[in-house]
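Figure caption, in words: inputs first, then the predicted bound structure.
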Amino acid sequence: MARERLYLFDTTLRDGAQTNGVDFTLADKLTIAGMLDDLGIDYVEGGYPGANPTDTQFFCERRPLRCTFTAFGMTRRPGRSTSNDPGLAALLEAKADAICFVAKSWDYHVRVALETTPEENLASIRDSVRAAIAKGREVLLDCEHFFDGYKANPQFALACAKAAYDEGARWVVLCDTNGGALPHEVERIVGEVVKVIPGSHVGIHAHNDTEQAVANSLAAVRAGARQIQGTLNGLGERCGNANLVSIIPTLKLKPEFADRFDIGVSDAKLKTLAHASHTLDEMLNRAPNRHAPYVGESAFATKAGIHASAIMKDPATYEHVPPDTVGNRRKLLVSDQAGKSNVLAELDRIGIKVEKDDARITRLLDVVKEREAIGYAYEAADASFELLARRVLGTVPKFFDVTYFDVKVEQRSRTAEVSEMLTTAVVKVRIDGETLISAGEGNGPVNALDVALRKDLGKYQRYIEGLELTDYRVRILNGGTGAVTRVLIESQDETGERWTTIGVSPNIIDASFQALMDSIVYKLVKSGAPA
Ligand SMILES: [Zn+2]
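Bound structure (zinc ion present):
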């Protein structure tokens, strides 16, 4: 049986840009659009030309994309003609393949928010769709608050959708604008709509206010809708939009959908999904959500030893899909609860060859348990675990010694009211019998120490040039005799690989220093630097 085509519409750059704290530059928008295009998304909504300078600029020239590049905007204002509405004019001028209009479909909103009549709302939809088609654009209509509108007045909500379809709109998109609809309601209402408008012209735009945006999108598809709108990582205001990063693998890997539908994302591109998701987080300067379905670092992580030994025998025993299909990897957590099989599997992944009954494995497990008892957490620090394992198994070269460091934090008054904080660090490093001294300034003691330490590592300098600290987390643990500080540092290098290292000490500088050292040593090991 031939599979039906299901279309994906991404609104990360428009609805996603509404998120608190998200402010895309033009360069960001170009990068993200390119990434979505490469992934195989059918429609990329770039923004709202005329609403702000960035979006206007984004649409002032044709962008070299394979997808249908879409501009968003309002239908003509009530009481105006299409030729006398500057907002609509800007939208029609935008260099886009398609225009996605938003219009009211809830009679209550038409009355109260728009202060116009139902007839004028329908006329505005018809006129706007006609004007955009006359301009040669593909047209979509987002029916705002469709589900609430349908519950209140189904005839009117349907009339709005039908007005656009009859006028030639390619898609009528049913929006759950406040995110309050539930899957069974969505399935029922979409089922009613597709009796009037063919499902091949119906889309779903769900928000996540009851955490069912993904479920609602899938319910709409089950009922007949053939376009799904969403965003990368579920970005969007309030609780976010439907998360395409969860929807795409579900459509590709779950037989109910995979057997019936084709989407524009190939199997090969599906393997880049985790990377795309993390790249967006990086651009937003956010740490990726470890527990994100499919792509999170913990999505295929197993802690308990008994599960781990079953997974080693056959991964299908505990995994709902193979992790590499979405570009993720299986992770067997090494922790004080871990059995031998976790450690063996992790060593195998790292590439350390060791016999199953090697006594050093037991020794390694003991060290992990001892250190976790004083505050280390190796399941969160893969690189520190690798170094520990290599040390216990005796294979980490002694690259350099830090023989001295000193960190100074000063407050200096510039005027009576204004003072500034100055932080400097001095580090002495010994390499091949030679002592190198470096000083660094930073916005805080850890930063200054990092700057000084990485300023001059002699013959190792070239290996750490691309090293960058991407996240720094501090947690105070309350031990039996007093507070202990745990520091986790996430680093990244020029290849895009990320790793996490850990330090634990009653002193935050010492804990940070341990994590920094591990990060640098890990990078040197990984790069095959000579001892
Ligand atoms: Zn929305």
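Residues 15, 177, 205, 207, 241 surround zinc ion (CB under 6 Å).
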